Amino acid sequence: MPLIDPNVDLPLQARVGLTADSAFQTVWPYPSWIAHRGAGRLAPENTLAAFQVGLDHGFQMIEFDVQITADQIPVLMHDATLERTTNGQGPVWAATAGQIGQLDAGRWHSAAFEGEAVPTLAQVAQWMQSHGVLANLEIKPAQGLETQTGEQVASVAARLWSGVTPPLLSSFSVAALEAAKAVAPGLPRALLADVSRWAVAEAPFEAILRTALGLSAVAIVIQHAGLDADRIAAAHSAGLRVLTYTLNDAARAQALLSMGLDGVITDAVDSLGSTK
Ligand code: G3P
Ligand code: MG
């Protein structure tokens, strides 16, 4: 069944003058609950150990952050620099994949995870496909590397997820999503946005919708304080799915889901979602 009834009045869609990618309006292969960075704070973020913890709690989809190394290899890393989540130093873009592969990405979290590695996107794709877990791949470019990162990550992801349910690519960077669209148009895109920080003062939510549609995105992923029933309905009317980040409060999650929210990215893998 189509997400949008073509006979209803769609004022926002008419104003925007664009529609979202048609295939994903009718077919939405992703579940409602998505584990943030693998397993929230229960395990070292963006590691395969965290992915296993997320899966052990019943999550069938995982959000993770990807950027590129000096030798253009996509790896999982949230911060622009290595210090917080590894025993390395300096910007991710300045280190090779070989150097990053030697680092400990688990000890900062707890002794139980000592020796955990920074995974490459290739290792993650293999793990996810062999475990039947879907991906929300957040493109996290370093400043100035938006286009390069979007291109490289999307083209590698398209190869790695060939013939299976694709990763939902998301980013705060419009330039990265434009680059992803150019090199891998078949991979679904989602615009990440915090409405309160969007660079347009007037009608920021409409600007977000317009930007998402200009990217031929299939979804928006909105910081949860910026959502309400009217905004979810407006996005749906424009043909966009609506997800939220990073929501750890059960009552708020249920309220937004009852308004039609399509997905919740959460750290609370032990209390929300498909907990086992
Ligand atoms: O993708 C949703 C969320 O991960 C965005 O914020 O900083 O946790 O990557 P951040
Ligand atoms: Mg993220």
Explain the overall architecture.
With 276 residues, the protein is α/β, with parallel strands linked by helices. The chain has a single domain, classed as Phosphatidylinositol (PI) phosphodiesterase (TIM Barrel, Alpha-Beta Barrel). The chain is built from ten helices and nine strands. An eight-stranded parallel β-barrel has the order 1-2-4-5-6-7-8-9, surrounded by six helices. The radius of gyration is 18 Å and the shape is globular.
Protein traits:
single chain; 276 residues; alpha/beta; TIM Barrel; 8-stranded parallel beta barrel; binds SN-glycerol-3-phosphate; binds magnesium ion
What class, by secondary structure content?
alpha/beta
| Widest beta sheet: strand line-up | 1-2-4-5-6-7-8-9
Report the order of strands and helices: HHEHEEHHEHEHEHEHEHE
N-to-C terminal Cα separation, in Å?
31 Å
Number of domains: 1
Average pLDDT figure: 92
Number of helices: 10
CATH first level: Alpha Beta
Q: Which ligands accompany this protein?
A: SN-glycerol-3-phosphate, magnesium ion
CATH superfamily heading:
Phosphatidylinositol (PI) phosphodiesterase
User: Which consecutive residue ranges, at least 5 long each, have pLDDT under 50?
Assistant: 1-17
Shape: globular
Major beta sheet, specifics? Answer: 8 strands, parallel, barrel
Number of E strands: 9
Helicity, in percent? 25-40%
CATH topology-level name: TIM Barrel
Layout of helices and strands:
Blueprint: H1 11-16, H2 22-26, E1 33-36, H3 48-56, E2 61-68, E3 74-76, H4 97-101, H5 121-131, E4 134-139, H6 146-160, E5 168-171, H7 174-183, E6 189-193, H8 204-214, E7 219-223, H9 229-237, E8 241-245, H10 250-258, E9 263-266
Parallel strand pairs: 1-2, 1-9, 2-4, 4-5, 5-6, 6-7, 7-8, 8-9
Antiparallel strand pairs: 2-3
Helix pairs in contact: 5-6, 6-7
Bound molecules: SN-glycerol-3-phosphate (G3P) and magnesium ion.
